[in-house]
């Protein structure tokens, strides 16, 4: 009997000991989960989804990289400074990629430029870079449906690359003298672009000789564009140039002739006039269509006339710039239709239609016989 009592007491003791151990373990684990004071550093949480886009947009959204030496890669966005003379290799991720680059590389079909599409990326190579290559480079995935492809605007990466050259502080121009038209309804740019954002640039007027103050309000400077006249007026007309300096002898830009434009943007303003409203058979018919417009806006003319496709006609077109005083400049564009040895079929309405990027205007003149 005593033996069973002793065994029972031993078993109860072990049960109580296990229970106490489990309770102590739970208490310890709960205490470990509490926040303890101290100087322990925590890893920052990396944003996901939209948070990543807003907080790390410069790095996470760029699909463009520059290939450096020894197989190193640098993601590009915003702007980047490179030395002229170096070769440029850019890559953009994607199986179908579109590119944009300084327009003159296309205009002159530069053989230094090549683009090759690989399985997972597109490669742009530009050898023997120079200050003239300074400008904007962009790439984007192409969204294709069969043979038709569109630009994926949301994933487009753009970087402005400066190709620095101490001998060329200004991005070279294709001409030695440029004409810039000032309009009261839009900003005008004097394109003194530089090859390094560190270059100091000043704007000068030739006559009377003076430096133009840049206050950031009326006139501001952007190294990627040049001097921006935000509210141009007739007082800004004249010959201007830019002066740049960077730890050495100042350099001068090309000269810019600033002309103030009085004709507002819009469809062509057209007039038409016949050499005579009544002619005899065998006489010549001349009808002149005239457009007054903005200096650099081209105008396309089309004619509808009696005897069309049945009688030969001569059509001549020309344009010129005229100074209307006080620095105001206007472009006169003309189209003249001539019918020689008029016949009965040539009498009727001569309709001229002038078209520019803003729209078109049609006018008519009637020519009858005596």
Summarize the structure.
By secondary structure, the protein is mainly beta. The chain has four helices and 27 strands.
Description:
This is Platelet-derived growth factor receptor-like protein. It is found in: Secreted. With about 375 residues, this protein is mostly beta strands. The protein has helices at about 1-30, 50-55, 55-60, 105; strands spanning about 65, 75, 80-85, 90-95, 95-100, 115, 120-125, 135-145, 150, 155-165, 175-180, 190, 200-205, 210, 220, 225-230, 240-245, 250, 255-260, 270-275, 280, 285-295, 300-305, 315-325, 330-340, 350-355, 360-370. The strands form 5 sheets. Strands 11, 13, 14, 17, 18, 19, 20, 22, 24 and 25 form a 10-stranded mixed beta sheet that branches. Strands 2-1-4-7-6 form a 5-stranded antiparallel beta sheet, with no helix packed on it. Strand 17 and strand 18 (about 250) form a beta hairpin. The radius of gyration is 37 Å and the shape is extended.
SSE inventory with pairings:
Blueprint: H1 2-32, H2 50-55, H3 57-60, E1 64-67, E2 73-75, E3 78-83, E4 88-93, E5 97-100, H4 103-107, E6 113-117, E7 121-126, E8 135-145, E9 148-151, E10 157-164, E11 177-182, E12 188-190, E13 200-205, E14 210-212, E15 219-222, E16 226-229, E17 238-245, E18 251-252, E19 255-261, E20 269-274, E21 278-279, E22 285-293, E23 300-304, E24 314-323, E25 328-339, E26 348-356, E27 359-369
Parallel strand pairs: 3-10, 11-19, 19-25, 21-27
Antiparallel strand pairs: 1-2, 1-4, 4-7, 5-8, 6-7, 8-9, 8-10, 12-16, 13-14, 13-17, 15-16, 17-18, 17-19, 20-22, 22-25, 23-26, 24-25, 26-27
């Amino acid at each position: 009997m005593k033996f069973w009592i002793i065994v029972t007491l031993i078993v109860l003791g072990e049960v109580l000991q296990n229970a106490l151990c489990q309770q102590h373990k739970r208490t310890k684990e709960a205490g470990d989960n509490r926040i303890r004071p101290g100087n322990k550093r925590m890893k920052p949480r990396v944003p996901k989804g939209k948070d990543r886009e807003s907080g790390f947009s410069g790095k996470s959204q760029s699909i463009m990289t520059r290939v450096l030496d020894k197989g190193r890669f640098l993601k590009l966005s915003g702007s980047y400074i490179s030395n002229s003379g170096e070769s440029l290799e850019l890559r953009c991720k994607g199986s179908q990629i579109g590119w944009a680059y300084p327009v003159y590389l296309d205009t002159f079909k530069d053989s230094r430029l090549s683009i090759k599409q690989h399985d997972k990326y597109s490669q742009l190579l530009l050898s023997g870079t120079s200050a003239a290559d300074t400008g904007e480079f962009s790439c984007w995935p192409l969204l294709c449906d069969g043979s038709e492809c569109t630009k994926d605007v949301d994933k487009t990466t753009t970087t402005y690359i400066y190709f620095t050259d101490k001998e060329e502080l200004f991005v070279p121009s294709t001409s030695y003298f440029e004409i810039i038209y000032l309009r009261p309804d839009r900003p005008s740019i004097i394109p003194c672009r530089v090859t390094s954002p560190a270059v100091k640039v000043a704007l000068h007027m030739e006559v009377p000789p003076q430096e133009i103050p840049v206050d950031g309000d009326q006139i501001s400077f952007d190294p990627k564009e040049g001097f921006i006249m935000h509210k141009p007026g007739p007082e800004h007309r004249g010959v201007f140039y830019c002066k740049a300096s960077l730890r050495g002898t100042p350099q001068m830009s090309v000269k810019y002739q600033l002309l103030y434009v009085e004709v507002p943007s819009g469809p062509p303003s057209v007039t038409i006039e016949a050499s005579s409203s009544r002619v005899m058979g065998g006489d010549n018919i001349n009808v002149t269509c005239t457009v007054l417009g903005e200096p650099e806006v081209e105008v396309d003319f089309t004619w509808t006339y009696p005897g069309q496709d049945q009688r030969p006609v001569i059509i001549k077109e020309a344009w010129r710039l005229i100074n209307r005083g006080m620095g105001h400049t206007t472009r006169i564009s003309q189209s003249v239709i001539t019918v020689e040895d008029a016949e009965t079929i040539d009498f009727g309405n001569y309709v001229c239609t002038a078209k520019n990027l803003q729209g078109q205007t049609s006018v008519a003149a009637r020519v009858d016989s005596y």
